[in-house]
Amino acid sequence: MDKEKHGETPTGTDTSGLAEALEQGPLQALETLKTRIAAVASRGVAALSELREIDRLAGTALDELDRVILSAAPANVADHGQRSADFWVRLGELCGGFHSSSGLECRLVIPQGHTRFRSPVAEILLRVVAELLANVRKHACANSVEVSSAVRADGSVVMIVKDDGIGLTAAEHIRPLADGAFGLWSIKQRLQEIGAFMELENDAGLTARVILPAAVRSGT
C-alpha cells in the first residue's frame, strides 16, 4: 500500500519516473512527428526531404521508447540462474521488438549459457545491443541482422551484431551521430565502464563484436 501511495507499483516500478521518461522521450518525439505530419497533410503534398525527416522522427520515437522499456525493467535478480534467464529472455524480446518496429529480420543465435552476467553488466549490454540495432535501422539499409555470441579460450564472451547493409564510413566509426543518438562512439565509452570493448568489421555490412572479459560473468 505504501509503495502504491508513493507512485510505485507492487513490483517496485516508479510510475512517476516512468511517466517523466515517457514525456521527455518518446512522447515528445511523437508530438514533433504529429506536428510535421499535420503540416504536410494541410498542404496535401510533401517534399522528399520532409518524408525523410518524418521517417527519422518516427525512428527516434521508437528508439526512445526502446530505452524507456529497457530502463523500466527490473535490474536486480538475486539468483544467478534466474538472472541469466531474464537477460536471455530480454534479448529475445529486444530482437522481437526490433523486427516488429522495423520489419527487418532479426535472428537471435545465443545459447543461454553465454548470457550469465552480473546485473549491471547485463543492463549495459542490453542497451548496447539496442543501440546497435537502432543504428542498423537508421543507417545500414539492411534486410536482416543477426545477434550471436561466442566464448573464447580465455573465458571472455563475444556478443556479435551483424547486418547485411552498406556498412559505415571510417568517420562514422568514431563520431557521435548527428541526431543525438547514442552512437558507436558513445557505445565504446559505455563499454569501458565494465572493462569491455568493441571491434568493428566493415565488410559486406557491419559486424560489431563486443568483447566482455571473463571477470564480468557470473555463475561460471
Q: Please give the alpha-carbon distance between the first and last residues.
A: 39 Å
- Radius of gyration from the CA trace? 19 Å
Mean pLDDT: 76
Strand content: 15-25%
Helix content: 40-55%
Low-confidence stretches: 1-13, 74-82, 170-182
Largest sheet: 5 strands, mixed
Oligomer state of the chains in this structure: single chain
Derived from helix and strand composition plus strand pairing, the structural class reads alpha+beta
Question: Largest sheet, order of strands side by side?
Answer: 1-2-3-5-4
Order of helices and strands: HHHHHEHEEHHEE
Number of strands: 5
How many helices? The count is 8
Give the CA-based shape: globular
Task: Give an overview of the whole structure.
- The chain is of the alpha+beta class.
- The chain has helices at residues 2-5, 15-24, 26-43, 48-72, 80-102, 119-140, 170-174, 183-192; strands spanning 105-109, 144-151, 157-163, 197-202, 206-212.
- It has a five-stranded mixed beta sheet, with helices on one face.
- Helix 4 packs antiparallel against helix 6 (119-140) and helix 5 runs parallel beside helix 6.
